[in-house]
Amino acid sequence: MAPVEQDALAVREQLFHERVRECIICALLFASLYILCHFVITHFKKHTDFTAVHDDEDAAVNRIALGLCTFTLAVALGAVLLLPFSIISNEVLLSFPQNYYIQWLNGSLIHGLWNLVFLFSNMSLVFLMPFAYFFTESEGFAGSKKGIMARVYETSVVLLLLTLLVLGMVWVASAIVGNDAASRQSLYDLWEYYLPYLYSCISLFGVLLLLLCTPFGLSTMFTVTGKLLVKPRLLEDLDEQLSCTRFEEAAVSHRIRSGKASCWLNLDMEMLREQFFAIRSKRRKLELRHRASPWQRNLGYPLAMLGLLALTGISVLIVCFHVLELLLDDAAMPRGIQDASLGQVSFSIFGSFGAALQVVLIFYLMLSSVVGFYSSPLFTRLLPERQGTPLTKIIGNCVSLLVLSSALPVFSRTLGITRFDLLGDFGRFNWLGNFYIVFLYNMGFAGLTTLCLVKRVSWAVQAELIRAFGLHKLPLPVTRCRTRSKPC
Q1: φ and ψ at 376, to 5 degrees?
Q2: How far apart are the C-alpha atoms of 39 and 35, rounded to whole Å?
Q3: Which terminal residue of the chain has fewer beta carbons within 10 Å of its beta carbon, N or C?
Q4: Does residue 12 contact residue 20 with C-beta atoms inside 8 Å?
Q5: Which of 358, 408, 401, 405 lies closest to 379, judged by CA?
Q6: Residue by residue, what is the 3-state secondary structure of 176-208?
Q7: Beta strand ranges found along 322-403 (DSSP E)
Q8: Which three-class secondary structure state does DSSP give residue 217?
């Protein structure tokens, strides 16, 4: 064999081994995410939906739908970890460029992960989740033999009709927006244009949902942190409050017992019971605060609040700086690339520290968006319950989390949280090149977040000052209207 042929064979063998290695790594990563998501869904699912006591067929259908939900949730978690994993991989390759044991961490692997997440996100949103919902609701066509296959046939027909309807609506909308022959001709290419355009619309909806949920979630996280941690109180004597509450609880309890034994006492027993339960709840909270150590009471809550304030303030400053960059430099616009050149330059001007801060901010914004999503009045009913969430609600949660998580890379790049450019089809969204959309999006996030932050902090400081000086115990004045109506 000639030396040239030997070199070509060695190159082909190396490419083959790299491709096999990438497939094994992707399979192991997804299997780990799938197992983790299976335990999460099992923790929240309703057990009565999967028992074979009433109907084995219904239980089998629910198990199949549960597997599809687990797959979708694993894809959503992979979309959340996609951008942080890429940033960390770049910093690792920068720190250890010649290390033999991390040579598998290359641009080809990262690019393949981005493509797989994009493909599985499309598959889950367009096919798997609608199939899971219609599969659980189907019973088979009238006159057909009952069984799982009858449900599969009915679900396939309904899903096909729904797909044609949605694709037709998207085709008409895109033809109206791009009213030229080239745009209409490109719509006939299903894989290269049609599905990416549909996913672009879904991603735009997810990014807008993140814009609305994230500031609201940041505000909610301050409230949740205040409820979970023991807050320090100014000018407060816990021992005195605890003893007064115990005496008050004992007095109300004695009145309830004496009211049952006496026939001449005119007492509202229901009101006394409500008062007793309220006092007992207050006493338990005071005991919990009294048992807390001085470090936990005086240091834990301030550090947590300062951490939330710091992360929120840094996010707003980065977005404001990105707004200035958008006005001065076109390179600040989010764009997509096809080649992931890792290990050449850091994506932060502060090096590894800046990259770590970017990862923390990405996770923080995703957590705040999820908190804001489940705290909003429109989606409160989707909040899962431990061991009591029906399958239809699990499907709704998986779809919502997938929409939010798949839009997270575009969300982070649009706001300038990271400089890591979007890989694969994530960078092919049409609206990413529109300056006005990107500029208004950054301004909207900075304005809403600043408003929620100032409002929450000012209210918290005002409430603490009122409580510290005992102004909350003062009786409110009763005003009366001069009209004949009831007192105000």
Answers
A1: -70, 150
A2: 7
A3: N
A4: no
A5: 401
A6: HHCCCHHHHHHCCCHHHHHHHHHHHHHHHHHHH
A7: 336-337
A8: helix
Give the span between the Cα atoms of 96 and 94, in whole angstroms: 6
Name residue 137's amino acid: E
Model confidence at 5: pLDDT above 90: no
* Euclidean distance between CA atoms 415 and 322, whole angstroms: 7
Closest by CA to 234, choosing from 456, 463, 459, is 463
Helices vs strands, H then E, count in the chain: 15, 2
Q: How far apart are CA 351 and CA 360, in angstroms?
A: 15
Report the C-alpha gap between 88 and 102 in whole angstroms: 12
Q: Which residues pair with 422 in a beta bridge?
A: 336
Q: How far apart are CA 82 and CA 403, in angstroms?
A: 14
Quick check: 370 and 404 in contact, CB under 8 A?
Answer: yes
| Poorest-pLDDT segment among 65-69, 140-144, 197-201 | 197-201
Report the residue count for the chain.
Answer: 488
Lowest mean pLDDT among 16-20, 299-303, 313-317: 299-303
Reference 280, options 240, 235, 310, 250; nearest CA is 250
Tokens of 413: 């790049």
Q: Are 346 and 91 in contact (CB under 8 A)?
A: yes
Q: How far is CA 281 from CA 241, 243, 286, 396, 468, in A?
A: 13, 14, 9, 35, 21
* Other Cβ atoms within 10 Å of 142 Cβ, number: 6
Q: Distance between CA atoms of 273 and 263, rounded to whole angstroms?
A: 18
Between residues 259 and 308, which one has the greater pLDDT? Answer: 308
pLDDT of 196 reads 61
If one compares 127 and 101, the residue with the highest pLDDT of the two is: 127
CB 240 within 8 A of CB 478: no
Of these ranges, 3-17, 246-260, 405-419, the one predicted with the greatest mean pLDDT is 405-419
Query: Do 253 and 277 form a contact (C-beta atoms < 8 A)?
Result: no
Taking the CA atoms of residue 187, residue 188, residue 193 and residue 198 in that order, the dihedral angle to the nearest 10 degrees is 60
Contacts 24+ apart (CB under 8 A), 21-28: 21/104, 22/108, 22/109, 22/112, 25/104, 25/109, 26/109, 26/112, 26/113, 26/116
State the chain's mean pLDDT as an integer.
78
The band of 77, judged by pLDDT with boundaries at 50, 70 and 90, is very high
* Integer Rg of the chain from CA: 29
- What's the confidence (pLDDT) of residue 178? 59
Global pTM value: 0.80
pLDDT at 75 over 90: yes
Choose between 395 and 279: higher pLDDT: 395
**Residue 100: Cβ-neighbour burial (10 angstroms; 0-12, 13-18, 19+):** exposed
Which amino acid, 142?
A
pLDDT average, residue stretch 114-122? 88
Residue 389 pairs with which residues in a beta bridge? 45
Determine the Cα–Cα distance for residues 213 and 194; give it in Å rounded to an integer.
29
CA gap 217, 404 in Å, rounded: 13
